TrEMBL record:
Alphabetical keyword list: DNA-binding, Transcription, Transcription regulation
Record bears the keyword DNA-binding: yes
Top-level taxon in the UniProt lineage: Bacteria
Annotated HTH hxlR-type domain residues: 8-113
Descriptive protein name: Helix-turn-helix transcriptional regulator
């Protein structure tokens, strides 16, 4: 097991900012939450499950997540072609961090408190 680097506050902030850029985008978190738990989803399933996303935007966001190593794409060469998406091991490892952020958000003061599920 390798040792973690010794971070200065500036290096720690820079490292977190760099990784948060991977999650930037209106739809990326919605996509990730659809894939957590080892789920494999077809493109059409993702499109139907995320209200308001356009096909073009879903393609763009999935390509960026794939490029960043968070999502993997499987193309089944059949007629009609079938494309499925799932999280990589690194992408799945993001789940506890996002769960922790959700818990943190639940404890937020009034202006920042998350919306009620409904």
């Amino acid at each position: 097991m390798s040792k973690r680097p010794a971070y200065t506050p500036a290096l720690a902030a820079e490292g977190v900012q760099d990784i948060l850029r991977v999650l930037e985008g209106r739809w990326k978190l919605a996509i990730l939450f659809q894939l957590f738990g080892g789920k494999v989803r077809r493109f059409s399933e993702l499109e139907r499950s995320i209200d308001g996303i356009s096909q073009k935007m879903l393609i763009q966001q999935l390509r960026q997540l794939e490029k960043d190593g968070v999502v993997a794409r499987i193309v089944h060469h059949e007629v009609p072609p079938r494309v499925e998406y799932h999280l990589t091991q690194w992408g799945q490892a993001l789940c506890p961090a996002l769960d922790a952020l959700l818990l943190w958000a639940e404890a937020a003061p009034a202006p920042f408190a998350p919306r009620e599920a409904g």
